[in-house]
Amino acid sequence: MGLAPIFGKEKTMEHLLELFMQLLKDDFFEVRLSIISKLEDVNKVVGHQLLSPHLLPAIFHLAEDKQWRVRLAIIDYIPLLAKQLGLEFFNDKLGNLAIDLLHDKVYSIRDAATLNLQKLTQVFGVEWAQQNMLPKVLAFHEHPNYLYRMTTLFSISVLSSVVTPAIINHNMLPLVIKMAVDPVPNIRFNVCKTLKALQPTLQESLVESAVRPTLIKLIEDSDLDVRYFARQTAEAFHLNI
């Protein structure tokens, strides 16, 4: 695929494009991943309009593979594809896939997909994330499946390092506080962990008005683990509770 810039558009389309398309359908997923990883050279020469009819099925097929390690492998290429194919193409064709992978039944996939949100925000910017990604991710906090709700907390923790303090204080924190009364103990003690992750950016007034009352209740929670993490978080905030 590195020959594409040397061949130019006409010769690439004549001699290389068909080979590229065939390799995207190869029986071995390693071959398909390798071709996707070298997409940039071909994309610069012929453009994603010609590639996408064959590229997208290969990406979605890998993302839906029964082997979780294959699904994990394609996740690593999503930020690369985002950078190479551009904002408009990503939003239109791949944006939903990045969100759907957050729902995977395997924890390692969900974890990697969460980290991808951070990388995509670094590629496209905070404004893009606020408009296109955050509303969908934050909406999971009310999902009946507690794993989806957990993903919301993990995403907030990860994204807190790349979004603005205003988003953290006014969009993320109220939702985390709301989740402190979740019926699942794992959610409640992850609320404590998430608050700890947000601590460096939170306004002092919000710490006193929102964080302190929440931790007071969680320190008295019926669940031992919740009480433990609530105390740890209170210490991180230097709160005398």
Strand content: under 5%
SS content category: mainly alpha
Main beta-sheet annotation: none
Average pLDDT across residues?
A: 85
Low-confidence stretches are: 1-15
The rounded distance between the terminal residues' Cα atoms is: 62 Å
Anisotropy-based shape? elongated
Number of strands: 0
Rg estimate, integer Å: 22 Å
Helix content: over 70%
What is the string of helix and strand elements? Answer: HHHHHHHHHHHHH
How many separate helices?
A: 13
Task: Describe the overall structure.
- The chain has 241 residues and is mainly α.
- The chain is 78% helix and 0% strand.
- It contains 13 helices and no strands.
- α2 (29-37) runs parallel beside α5 (68-85) and α4 (48-63) runs antiparallel to α5 (68-85).
- It is elongated, with a radius of gyration of 22 Å.
- The termini are far apart.
- The model is unreliable at 1-15 (pLDDT under 50).
